[in-house]
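Quick entry, no commentary yet.
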Amino acid sequence: MIDWTPYLKSISDSEKYAQWETFYTLTDVEGKTRPSKTAPLLRDLWVQTIEKEPQNRQERPERPEKTERFTVLDGLRKYATNHVLLKGRPGSGKSTALARLLLEESVEAQSLRLNQQNQAKIIQIPILIELRLYETSILDLILQFLKRHKLIIDSNTLESWLLENQNFRPLLLFDGINELPSEAARQNLKNFRQQYAEISMIFTTRDLGSDDLDIEKKLEMLPLTEPQMQDFVKAYLPEKGEEMLKQLGNRLKELAETPLLLWMLCSVFDDNQNKIPANLGLVFQIFTGIYDKKLKADVPTYQESRDWWRELLQVLAWKMTQGESKTEIQVAISRTEAEEELSKFIKNKGFPEYYSKQWLEDLLKYHLIHLEGNDKIAFRHQLIQEYYTAEELKKKLPHLRDEQLQWDYLNYLKWTEPMALLLGLLDNETQAKRVVKLGLEIDLKLGARFAGEVNFKFQKQTVGLVLGLDVPKRFKVELLGLTKSNEVVNQLSQALKDSDWGVRWNAAEALGNISPETAIAELLKALEDSNSDVRRRAALALGKIGSETAIMGLLKALEDSDEYVRRNAAFALGNIGSETAIAGLLKALKDSDESVRGNAAFALAKIGSETAIAELLKALEHSDNALEALTEIETETAIAGLLKALEHSDEGVRGNAAFALGKIGSETAIAGLLKALEHSDEDVRWYAAFALGKIGSETAIPGLLKALEDSDEFVRRKAAEALGNIGTEAAMTELIKCLKNPDFVTLNNGDTLSQAREALDIIQNKLKYYHPLSQPMNQQVYISYNWQEDSNEMANQLVQAFDAKGIEIIRDKTHTTYKDSIKNFMRQIGQGKCVVAVISDRYLKSENCMFELVEIARNGDFYKRIFPIILPDARIYKDFERIDYLKYWEDEKAKLQAKYKQLDLVNTNSIMATLNLYDEIRGNIDNLTNILKDMNTLNIDLHRQSEFAAMIQKVETKLAEDSQNI
């Protein structure tokens, strides 16, 4: 049995994971070098299910599957059991989500391990597998992560646990499918997933396609909404935030749609004389420059290393992006490889090669690389690696022939992101146009994207290359959209008027990707297009732009004859997030289409204002979706309103309010619900009991117990059911007390008594035992052993193995304190219903150990109550050897007796008691050792290999039998 305690503690105590609970940062550099500002964590990151979107109405299913949206952790938890893939842009928060999940699940598992009330509950063990560190196998990656967190096991033990896990079940968090170094690695991961299909797994990737592992359920990180971005900026830059937002205008989404980019942009604005860089490449350039500039004055470095930091990082990034093949990159390399690469650079610059080791150490301490896994060097984010690769590529670009650039770089997907960043850094128009032209020759979509990545002052020329392409109009409009350049907005707006609905459809989608406010007027006209697919695309585009100017048109679209248009209009209004839309969205809660109702509810939840909450509370009378929206708004106002709704005259409203409070699950509502349990209306009391059961907090137990005496039978039954839902040992204890109470039985001689018994059954099945294990004597397991090294070590192993099964062993070292009576504790051992005894030669010659053994015999049922381990030095299996122990105690008695006779016999009661004990030991040792030798106590090695499984099973059986006899 694996002891998970050190592992879980290592995770929950780790600053690396704990930091995600408070702020967003890329680095933990030493001393003064930690950034002076840390960005607040964006907790409300959302995901939605990914479904194939029909391209035309002929492909639409009659009953389309509803798009689901969750906060990221809720979505991952919901679908982990059958495996789920999380897709998102670089820096969108995928790795952050896994780190938060790892921490939260570790803390939860640790609390369950420490809580006696959950001894038999299934405990989930989260393990983070960082796929960028892959070398040999997935199993090795898991073993490495466990080792880094204080758990060392072999591969056989790991495989056995993965296949046969029972009380401790794995939750495997695979980060970065796209960062696997080879096709062989991807195949190994796919095989692993199939082999361990029953295990809960979560995967993340930068993109979909060949890397989706055939995972059916996929979630997509939603981009930050404009209100989220604005709140973040104001929190990070309280004095400069408004100015930054003003300068950005509609470029906020372009530059900062993910948490990482938003944080970097804020850092750059704060350090760049309150100026916004022209493009993303320059954002990276200034951001990384902050480390070069600010840290130089703060940190001691080796020789001239800090003067070369940028070049050193470019060398490492280039090496890693080149990888071991033309198609694969490396996102982590060994320290040795890194030192070798730096040595070449350093030698060329005229420095001694041995500088490489110390200069690398300086970078690890003070810059944007760090050590990972098995002494691997990695950049703190793949985007940072891509930026430094772009800087190195910029230096090489003038020296690359067109053929080289085209077929060694542009042709391979791994160079696409560095090339895009490079284009933003280029000040040379000729080189920029050259890259775009060659890109268009390789792939039209690639070239179109590059046309929009170049410096703004060159985009008219590069976009002109796209405009000049001789391709069908539909495709050209699609390519113009890929540029995401403001230079194409006029052409796309004109395309919205084209006679071909496909051109108009592509134009609306393209404008949504660019999100220019100048196109709103034409997109509003497109909301009235004769083709429903165009209207649908126009609604989505207006939602992406996010301007309140579009609200009236979108509200009108909420009444469109096409359900897809109404759906997208509701979603768009949620993105805009204005109270102006509340009335129309409330009306949409009555729409005939379920997804329209769901999107309207989601939109109202995102607006989340006091007005929205008040209107949603009113809508509870007729809308389940209003209820759905309220469950997403965990504010004091929503909870207070729902508590008040428990007293509504309409039973449906009361039921919806109770259901919402239960689903929200906030303990904030408990006080109000407990008060509602005493309401004069029995229906209110019933719904309060229902909600408390759904919340499932032990805080509610006293109130629910009181409700078991309610005058209304149905309230009593619901209170009993709620206690069953809470399902803890505390609830079990109180239900047992009630069922033993004659007054309770008399009062509840009908269905309520049956419900109480059923609730108790539910808890017993959940906890897998019949009676609280903390009851005195009947459920306690003691251990009797000698303190010498071999016996003590065996006792440690036994305690650990039993603890892993949720059984606490009562032991002198942990259950006695300063000045406690040793004799009394030994008597308790003698009275124990289950006593594990580690029998050794020293044990059989120890006065205290033999006192315990004799006490066990004195209290009867010796054979049933003792569970022995016989160490090899205990010589009890041959009669002539057992005689030695009889002789030993005869000699001990004779020696003490000889001394005793030399004394005045006054006040020697304790010595006489010892003499009597020796006599009793001598009188019992033959019989007791004979019983022990007759037991099949198994070989010590067998016990250890099985982690004492046979003994634990026998003890569990005895505990269960004792419970039934209470």
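second:
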Amino acid sequence: MKKRTKSRSSSSLSQYRSVSSAFLIAVLVCLAGASSSFMLFTRSFFETLSKHEAPIATISFKYKTAQRKFIDVAVWDRLKQKSDLYNGDTIHTSNLSQATITFIDGNEMVLADNTMAQIFLLPESFSASVLSGSAYVETAESAGFVLESSGKKVALETNSAVNIEKGAGGDMMQVYSGGASISDESGTFMSVGEGSVVSVGGSAPDASAPRLSVENPRPNQNYLYHSEGATIIPFKAKFSNVEAMTKFVLEISCDKNFSTVVERKEFLALEIDSLSVSLGGGIFYWRISPADEGGSYSSVTVSGKIRVIQSIPPVLLAPADGYTFNYRKRLPAVRMIWSESAAASSYRLTVSKSADFSSPVVEMRSSTPSCIISTLSEGTYYWKAEPFYSVNKIGFSSSSETGVFRIEQKGALPAPSLYIPTDGSIIDSGTDAKSTLFSWRFENEAVKYKIEFFKGDSSVAERTEYATDNFISVNGSEFAQGKWSWRVCQVDNENNESAPSQKSAFYSMEGKPELKVIEPADNYSVSESLVRDMVFTWKKVVPNGVSTEMEIAADSGFSNIVKVVPADGYSAVGISLDTGAYFWRIRAHSPGGDFDLSTPPRQFSVIGNLDASTLIDPVGRAVARDTQPYSFKWDEVDGADYYKFSLRRIGDGKILYEDTVFDTSLDIDMYFGEHFIDKESYHWEVQAKANAVPGVVSRRSGKLAEANFQLVKLKPVEITSPRQNSVINGVDATLKKVQISWTAVDEVAESQIVVSRVEADRSRRVVYKNPTDKERAAGKLRTLKSILMENPDIKRGGNYEVIVYAKTVDGIDISNTDDKRIGRFRILPVEPLPAAENLGVHPNVFGLEYLKNRNNPRKIRLDWNAVENATDYVILVKDARGRLVLKTEVEGKNSYEINWLNLVRAHQGSFSMSELYNGTFSWSVEAVRRVDLDGDGENETVLQPGSVVDSSFVVEIPDVNPVSGKGARNPYGN
């Protein structure tokens, strides 16, 4: 049973293995087929189509690609650089692309982006049909060219340049150089000369329309220059039917949409021939348009694209100028290297034995900026590299400067020169150390090199190695710790051995050698008072037997060493130095001088202390006021961060105030301070301090500045009258005057009262001085303690301030100039008298009815109630038209009589009789108060004017015709 089961399992396993193998094989076959298909597809997709016929042109393109369609194939083919083109090929350039078609006869056609053209081989020349876009054609010296556009043929002469652009209104052609002829199927023929712009197909352009023809730059023109900086791009163009003084704008941009304009110039149409711009390397778009976009010349806009190429001449790099190659039998391989020049497609290398290159020994083309020549024998050689430019068909141009080198043949094998490790180097001999590379100069004759290693100062080699290259790699663990040296000699193919090189010493030690300075930091500054406290620290790992020292010098080259301190440990302190700049380093060296290792120098400076400050106030005397603290002031010290301030009383030496101040002033209340005594002497000190900045500068102190002073507590003048902010009646201020009184505690030597009016804009105007400035100049220096001042402004009143400028007998200013001590008062304006009341007129109507009664007075009486304090009354009478008939003043009475008939006679000539005999008249009365202010007994000053009040009366006197009568009487009485 078991045997049967086992047999079945073995059979199943064999069957499974057979199926798995077949499946695996099938998968591998499928993968191989898929890979082959993918490779064939890729090769087919990226392969450029070709024909079994002779090409007529090649194509190159920039900034993207171009496509080609055969005349007999409907498939577009993606072209590669320098692809062949055939008869009937249609070429299409993509957006932002540009393609150059070079025909085998030397003609060139440049297709702008989004342009389609078809090229043909004609019996005598080549031709192209421009289907869309624009094309620029330059013909060769020996071949013409035919362009077809819009059913017309344009035959180009040799050495001609033409641009044709297809548009909705017809195809426009511009001839830049040479000439062309245009013909159609009917045989119509037209010649076009240089500088002409014509229409090919479509309607002919309006000859009277304004137009701009640009001859330079040409479409997609390349400008190549070889100097540093920018180059001048000239514009050559011609305006037609445009006024000479019309203003145009030239814009230069890095993009075709002119969103970033790098140059903008305004010019007049007559200045077009002198137009130019300065541009560096790059692709630029230009546009000429009228400055007035909405003007009559808005259609005169021309644009284009140019490429500016800056190609600096090559610089010769190797061999170095004047270098000498040595050889014995085998000619040296001279590698020549130069810098690249932009836009150069290749270079011509010329080597000559003459400086004028009249007899070159080597002249070769190279597509790279380097070349190796192994055929030069002994002699002096001159060489140069000259770029070849296909741009604008320039060819070779802008050669490098001339270099020179020598090749010398020597009879004996020269001793090799050792490179690394340099003399005195240290190599790591630890078990985990990397291999050390020993290298030397390559020798042309050598087939192998012999390398010898010596232990210590022994002259017998400890070990010898051979190498075919000019280097050998040795593990550092193979060298015991200590001093070693090595040398190399070369061996040629005849087994001749050169003299050995000079020995070069190196030291073997476990780990990497290290010398490192730690503090002070580079450019650290230390105060001269702290230089002995400055700690120099470092780190060192050097071979045994090497001395270590700290050196301090006055120069970075350590030619003037001022201190040498043994550096057996890792720090040094207590070093005295004068002020000045110093450099320090740690130096490790062997007694024989074959090992010398130094840290890079660090600079530090020993700087002097800060200067003493200049004390400004107080000096000699300090006057303390009760209104504000006293301000101690001193000059700023350069480099100081803060100041130490101290104040003490001289009498008992008690320190009254100490503080750290970060400014150049300090306010102290010495008026109310309990320890400050009036008329005592005090001493104050200021010392500048500078903080330490870790790693930059140490702390510093300045010299002490000190001074003495006497304290005087100021007791300023006090204004006793008028009381502060009092209000004075204007009438009282005028009649009784304003009393100004003041007091002072100390005896006063000088004093002057100054009263100022405070105007509406808060400015002050002096209205009173006692004594006046003139009196002070005459010797009157003091005023009375109480004076009477006249009212400065009777009508307006106002706000006033009183300051008494005063000095004590010892010269202390005790003026009350502090704001809270200034005397202030207000004088009210003088109020006007009230209006007179109960105005009366007798009679109200001065007319015939009134005059018939002979007992009635022949006068008009005006009366009113008396006004208190009024001394006079002003009477005005006016007619209905407002003309003044009567003005008079009545003194001390409250009535007035007008003799109207006399008034009429007085106004004869000014008024007509009828105007005064009939009408309504207004009258007014104003009470006035006059006073005697100058004491002359006359009340000539109006103190209080009054309010005007008016009334009216009527006059009705009939006109009387004159009659003759003897002894006739006046019917109206006298």
